[in-house]
Design a protein that fits this description.
single chain, alpha/beta, Rossmann fold, twelve-stranded mixed β-sheet
Length: about 280
């Protein structure tokens, strides 16, 4: 069962169970998962994450959180105030998991992000108090930079499409049932590099899966306290299609997402089962 804040648009779409945001502590016996949503279209990301968690079949209470004092350009403050809690106000409470999403900031140095210091404090808190945190896309790059000094590097063209990730560490619980490889959507202008991550193996950091085409895919610590995924397994089938049309309309340099369309032009939702398996593994 998935529990979402009452009247959150995603709760209506998914017909999930609900809870009062002011009474979130009243839901007992389920995994409490914080969602620190940094994406601009927050309702889209809420639905993507909620749908994926619901389909795992694991009992989860998803608690959307935000950085205190931040303003939002593309999501109304009414929505944020109605459905999000300030993560700083919850730091005396107990949680089981946290998801830190991406943000469209990958071409900006981390230190120039207006909320960078605030985000670093939250990442440090989560690292000490939450057993497992999942850092997604830009969030993965931010986490790797903050904890290990591993920087992102610009790509000559957008990494855009569905790329098969070869499992490198079959003993990792994260990829149980996913060997020898699995597909994952990517949509990014930067990358993290194999050699720079491998240099931190003594600290328990390892590449779990990577692609010959798209590079490093999944990185994690041995204890799974920190998991970094540079792609978007949570994407619904048409997200890349919509991004492609958006970039074309803006006359940005873009090519069709690779390994995504079938010969007849329809979308191949090839990563659906991999997404559910990965998120189930991460939850349990």
């Amino acid at each position: 069962m998935l529990y979402l804040p009452q009247n959150l648009p995603a709760s209506l779409s998914l017909a999930s169970a609900t809870y009062s945001l002011s009474g979130w502590k009243q839901v007992d016996g389920v995994l409490r998962v914080l969602l620190l949503n940094l994406m601009p279209q927050k309702e889209v990301t809420e639905l993507d994450i909620a749908r994926t968690l619901q389909h795992t079949g694991v009992d989860v209470q998803l608690i959307p959180v935000k950085l205190k004092g931040q303003t939002f350009k593309t999501t109304s403050m009414a929505h944020m105030q109605a459905f999000y809690l300030d993560v700083e106000d919850l730091q005396e409470e107990s949680f089981d998991r946290m998801i830190l999403t991406g943000a469209p900031l990958e071409q900006m140095p981390f230190e120039q992000v207006r909320y960078w210091e605030q985000l670093c404090r939250v990442m440090d808190w989560a690292d000490k108090h939450i057993p497992r945190t999942l850092y997604v896309c830009w969030g993965a790059q931010a986490g790797l930079y903050h904890f290990y000094g591993i920087d992102k590097h610009a790509l000559p063209a957008k990494m855009f499409g569905i790329f098969r990730q070869r499992v490198l560490r079959e003993d990792s619980p994260l990829v149980s049932g996913l060997s020898p490889d699995f597909p994952m959507p990517n949509s990014r202008h930067t990358e993290v590099r194999h050699a720079e991550i491998a240099s931190h193996a003594a600290e328990g950091l390892h590449i779990v899966a990577e692609s010959e085409e798209s590079g490093v895919g999944v990185v994690a610590t041995d204890d799974l306290r920190r998991t970094f995924i540079v792609g978007h397994l949570e994407y619904e089938p048409y997200t890349l299609h919509n991004e492609y049309l958006r970039d074309l309309a803006k006359q940005l340099p873009i090519y069709e997402p690779l390994h995504y369309y079938r010969a007849d032009g329809s979308v191949d939702y090839s990563w659906e089962s991999a997404a559910l398996r990965f998120y189930t593994n991460w939850l349990v």
